[in-house]
Design brief:
The complex is a heterodimer. Chain A is about 30% helix and about 25% strand. Chain A has helices at about 215-220, 240-250, 265-275, 305-320, 335-345, 360-370, 400-410, 420, 440-450, 455-480, 485-505, 520-535, 540-560, 565-580, and strands at about 5-10, 15-20, 25-35, 35-45, 50-55, 65-75, 75-80, 85-90, 115-120, 130, 135-140, 145-150, 155-160, 165-170, 175-180, 185, 190-195, 230-235, 255-260, 290-295, 325-330, 375, 380-390, 410-415, 435. The radius of gyration of chain A is 27 Å and the shape is globular. The mean pLDDT of chain A is about 95. Chain B is built from eleven helices and 21 strands. Chain B has helices at about 130, 155-165, 180-190, 215-230, 240-255, 265-275, 305-310, 350-375, 380-395, 405-420, 430-435, and strands at about 10, 10-15, 20-25, 30-35, 40-45, 50-55, 65-70, 75-80, 85, 105, 125, 135-140, 140-145, 170-175, 195-205, 230-240, 280, 285-295, 315-320, 325-330, 335. The chains are: A alpha+beta, B alpha/beta.
């Protein structure tokens, strides 16, 4: 028997419901507004009164309206067919909804109920299985989608029977399993999981060490992220957060990309809808959309579903990770989610923490980032979720609660800088403030020397030092004037500019320059390091700028040219000749 | 519900500066009511106590005031008859004309399903290079002017509105001075554009809280023309800072905990709900929003411009260039996020690179100027950058220059070739080969 209730009070999307029986925290309830069912979630209980946040507009709702509690928390449906979907924050399929405008109470099933999947069994009758064990496999957009024992099932089971290879819908019983008491359960291809609970059906979570290639030079070369790593991108508006996130999601070497558009502009999501079906995945040659899932709660969609949207995205990510896949999860922006928490905490009249955010913000953020990671599954296979979130700090000030709390948990920090953006030096990642903790991992260094080169880390650190030195000299020149410092200072400064222009700056809208494979990044870093290690001689500081501007110009032409093409090699020749003219002969 | 059955409530339990509470039953959330004839809206219901926000304010409201609930949320009657008319915040005519007839629609309606939107791809030409060349506008975009109150943003906005090729221009005035209201009215009527204009006005003489209805009224009308009639609609909202001020007044009266700059914690969502109405619809209609957010002393870290910047697709800054004595659209701080959807696609291929090169060189000039002011010697490059910057501001950027995009590109190439060497502009060699002027 489900608990029922009636509406007692309404303050915007916070509704007070008097319940006639037991309710639990975070339980889902439906409010029946003249036949339209409004979904809501219990966020506080006082006596018989349940305070629910409604995921829709409450316009026209009256006191006395009937409410039905559902006996479960907010959960998502998991099964084959999630790829390529455009979902809302509550996992409704946006494409299945009628009309131009979103209608209240329009809830649609996220999977295709009629599609036939080609099923191949993995488990055999008699196998011992637990939650997350692979029973079989279907081909979902060329990804091996594993059909698993539902994560909600506790304890050990024995496979009694398994369906043979064939074409089935998601509702077909594909296996029967039996628990120790001889109770048998029929399993089909779908299962459900409450989004706020982490999916932990894995053996261990070792430190991540493999580079996740993004094709963005200022990330891969300078501050790399790893498979199963966490990173965040704070930046004031206009510094290029979204362009950078889109670049990463297009280019990263992942099996599955999940984009949670959380409280951001609808046109940015439309850009993904429009472009991804056309774009080619640089690693597989298939359409980008085929590996992508979009969870969209844009800024004009219901605020309460904003929080749910990031959890929905993470749960779907964990589901695919359990299949042994590499998942990249991007959330833009986690600040909007924090603001949604703030709005609700305010309506609940809780005592506010810093900047009126709820006191437990820090715990919420760290629990969420903690769900990412590289895992070894119970069957020994590996999977990962790499999570990159953006943060939109109020007033561009990084000393605000969301940025500070995120900094405590994310291992990579990509600081977007207003000054670089103003100067159109994109991507505007500040090379000096940003960091990647993974560089310090011995596991990572080992991986890099094996896969790129032994002197890679040394060259990266050298480039960073030169950038810092260049910045210091620029400040001195500002104070003392061009002729107030020795010509050697100008040379050092321009060497740092060379690194900035050739390595860091990258044209996200150019077909070739936008994505740089790691082999080419190595070429560029080697080239730039060689130039920086060369001694040059000039009779006047004026000549330094002229010379380096010409070098930079040729270097950029190289970046715009196909790697190792005739044109590319021609520019390289020009560059070498130019260097030879000014090089100090030992 | 028929009028005859309307129940009158008179048991007022609480009165604050903007709200009153009344004992009543069977009232819907967001519903409209009249309190002593003044329009009010339900903002909170606890049991049988209903809290109403009275738009005009509560001055003189007695504890036995007559409260009549209207059984509907705020609405607007939409039809072709709206065209050419001036209304107040409630949608009542203020131009002496008849009350328009049409289908009654609740304002502040639902959002567009993101998968039903089309990607904006049509350029809106304004003839102003600071916009068309550097920060190209696209139909379906939302973009504000960030301006200090003394800057001529209303003039620039009127110019943009008249030059843009749109079917309807909807003006939402919030806390506008009567003089500015008359300015818009005159400019539009002198240009013979009055039949394309629809105006919703809350001037400084009207109660502040009434402003909260203006954007929703304007956008409900806009959705009618863009969705039902497939027209291209340009919505002008000025000034959104006044709107936010009204929000903070109401949230304060409702005892909400303020967040940054005394603004309500929901400011982001409140503003996003308005700005996100801008859209390109599949059947060809579109809503483009050009707004004004006034700043105090140029501070863009204040909660209103800050939240706005995260919502809108860019922002435009005006600045007086002291070297040429003209107002320009600031190339450094202004940004149109949708420009890459049209630049080099609907305009000539060299557009993106020309724009970036010119702005970068203009920045070099700014550095040279700092050097000069600090008493340092200028290099030859610095001198050339400075003379380029003067020409660029006067002949391209100034808002009184009216050119089409190709002319802007040609003229910029002319200036680049005049002041620089090809290696200094950092552009793709193919473009230099084609467009560099010897």
């Amino acid at each position: 028997m489900l608990t029922k209730g009636t509406v007692k009070g309404i303050i915007s999307n916070l509704v007070i419901v008097e319940a006639d029986g037991a309710v639990s925290q975070n339980e889902i309830a439906y409010i029946d507004l003249n036949g339209t069912r409004l979904m809501s979630e219990v966020i506080k209980v006082v006596g018989n009164n349940a305070y629910v946040q409604v995921f829709e507009s409450t316009r026209g709702l009256t006191v006395g309206t009937e409410v039905e509690f559902q006996g479960h928390m907010l959960e998502v449906v998991l099964g084959p067919g999630l790829l390529q979907r455009n979902l809302d924050g509550l996992e409704n399929d946006l494409d299945k909804m009628d009309g131009i405008f979103l209608k209240r109470g329009d809830y649609t099933f996220p999977l295709d109920e009629e599609k036939l999947w080609h099923f191949q069994p993995i488990a055999q009758p008699g196998d011992k299985v637990t939650a997350g064990s692979w029973l079989g496999e279907v081909d979902e957009n060329f990804q091996p989608h594993k059909i698993m024992v539902p994560f909600t099932m506790k304890g050990e089971y024995t496979v009694k029977s398994i369906t043979q290879e064939g074409e089935y819908t998601i509702y077909k019983t594909i296996a029967v399993v039996e628990d120790s008491n001889g109770q048998s359960t029929e399993l089909n291809m779908i299962q459900r999981w409450p989004v706020k609970m982490p999916l932990t059906a894995y053996k261990e979570k070792p430190r991540p060490s493999k580079l996740l290639e993004t094709g963005v030079r200022s990330i891969d070369t300078l501050n790399p992220i790893v498979e199963g790593g966490t990173g965040f991108i704070p930046g004031a508006f206009g510094t290029g957060k979204t362009v950078l996130q889109h670049a990463i999601s297009k280019q990263a070497e992942a099996d599955i990309v999940i984009i949670a558009a959380c409280g951001e502009r609808a046109n940015e999501v439309v850009e993904i809808f429009t472009e991804f079906p056309e774009l080619i995945d640089p690693h597989t040659g298939r359409k980008l959309m085929e590996r992508t899932i979009i969870v969209a709660n844009t800024s004009n969609m219901p605020v309460a579903a904003r929080e749910a949207s990031v959890y929905t995205a993470m749960t779907i990510g964990e589901y695919y990770r359990s299949m042994g896949l590499k998942v990249l999860l991007m959330a833009d922006s986690t600040s909007r989610w924090a603001q949604a928490l703030r709005e609700m905490s305010n309506r609940l009249e809780e005592l506010p923490g810093p900047d009126a955010f709820p006191m437990d913000l820090s715990a919420i953020i760290s629990n969420f980032y903690g769900r990412a990671g590289h895992v070894v599954l119970n069957n020994g296979k590996e999977g990962s979720i790499t999570f990159i979130g953006t943060v939109s700090p109020a007033g561009g000030n990084l000393k605000e609660p969301v940025t500070e709390n995120t900094k405590k948990v994310a291992r990579c920090f990509y600081a977007l800088e207003q000054d670089r953006a103003d100067k159109k030096r994109y991507p505007a990642i500040n090379p000096i403030d940003s960091y990647s903790k993974y560089i310090e991992y011995p596991e990572f260094e080992e991986y890099i020397s094996e896969h790129i080169s032994a002197d890679w880390t040394e060259k990266v650190n050298e480039a960073k030092t030169r950038l810092l030195r260049g910045k210091e000299i620029a400040e001195q020149i500002n104070i003392l004037g061009d002729d107030g410092v020795p010509t050697a200072y100008h040379i050092t400064f321009w060497k740092s500019e060379l690194i900035d222009f050739i390595v860091l700056q990258q044209d996200a809208f150019d077909d070739i320059d936008s994505v740089t494979p790691i082999e080419r990044q190595k070429y560029i870093l080697d080239l730039v390091t060689d130039i920086c290690r060369t001694d040059f001689e000039f009779d006047h500081f004026d000549k330094v700028a002229d010379f380096f501007k010409e070098l930079i110009n040729i270097g950029r032409q190289m970046n715009y040219s196909e790697f190792r093409s005739d044109k590319f090699n021609e520019y390289r020749k020009q560059l070498d000749e130019l260097i030879d003219r000014k090089k100090v002969i030992q | 519900m028929a009028k005859a059955f309307q129940k009158i409530y008179t048991k007022i339990t609480q009165i604050t500066k903007a709200t009153c509470s009344v004992k009543a039953t069977n009232v819907g959330y967001d519903e409209l009511a009249t309190v002593e004839g003044r329009l009010a809206q339900v903002v909170k219901i606890i049991g049988d106590e209903v809290t109403l926000q009275i738009f005009e304010g509560t001055e003189g409201i007695p504890t036995n005031a007559e409260v009549i609930f209207m059984g509907k949320s705020p609405s607007l009657k939409v039809s072709e008859q709206l065209a050419g008319r001036f209304f107040n915040a409630y949608g009542d005519p203020i131009d002496g004309g008849p009350v328009p007839e049409g289908e009654e629609r609740p304002i502040g309606g639902p959002s567009v399903n993101p998968v039903r939107r089309k990607q904006p791809s049509e350029l809106i030409a304004t003839g102003i290079a600071g916009i068309d060349l550097n920060n190209t506008l696209v139909s379906g975009q939302k973009i504000p002017f960030f301006a200090d109150p003394d800057q001529p943003f209303n003039q620039v906005m009127a110019t943009v509105a008249l030059r843009a090729q749109t079917d309807k221009i909807i003006l939402g005035g919030m806390g506008m001075t009567n003089d500015d209201y008359l300015y818009f009215k005159n400019v539009f009527s002198n240009a013979g554009a009055l039949d394309r204009i629809i105006s919703f006005m809350n001037t400084t003489e009207d109660p502040a809280v009434e402003r909260l209805l203006i954007p929703d009224m304007a956008l409900t009308a806009a959705e009618y023309f863009a969705v039902d009639k497939n027209e291209k609609v340009l919505v002008l909202l000025t000034d959104m800072t006044s709107y936010a001020d009204a929000l903070s007044i109401v949230s304060n009266r409702m005892d909400q905990i303020p967040s940054k700059d005394s603004m309500p914690g929901s400011l982001y969502s409140d503003l996003a709900k308005i700005y996100e109405k801008a859209a390109q619809f599949p059947a060809g209609g579109s809503i483009t929003i050009v707004a004004v957010t006034t700043l105090s002393g140029g501070d863009i870290t204040h909660a209103v411009p800050d939240n706005t910047g995260y919502i809108t697709e860019g922002q435009l800054f005006l600045r007086r260039d002291s070297d040429v004595g003209k107002v320009v659209v600031d190339p450094f701080r202004s940004l149109s996020r949708l420009k890459q959807l049209v630049q080099g696609k609907k305009t000539r291929e060299d557009h993106p690179q020309v724009m970036n090169a010119a702005v970068r060189l203009y920045a070099d000039a700014a550095n040279a100027k700092t050097k000069l002011e600090n008493g340092f010697d200028l290099t030859d490059y610095d001198t050339r950058a400075l003379s380029f910057a003067r020409d660029y501001a006067e002949k391209i950027l100034a808002i009184d220059v009216n050119l089409d995009t190709t002319e802007m590109l040609d003229n910029t190439w002319k200036l680049l070739s005049q002041h620089f060497r090809p290696a200094e502009v950092n552009m793709k060699q193919e473009l230099i080969d084609t467009y560099w002027q010897q």
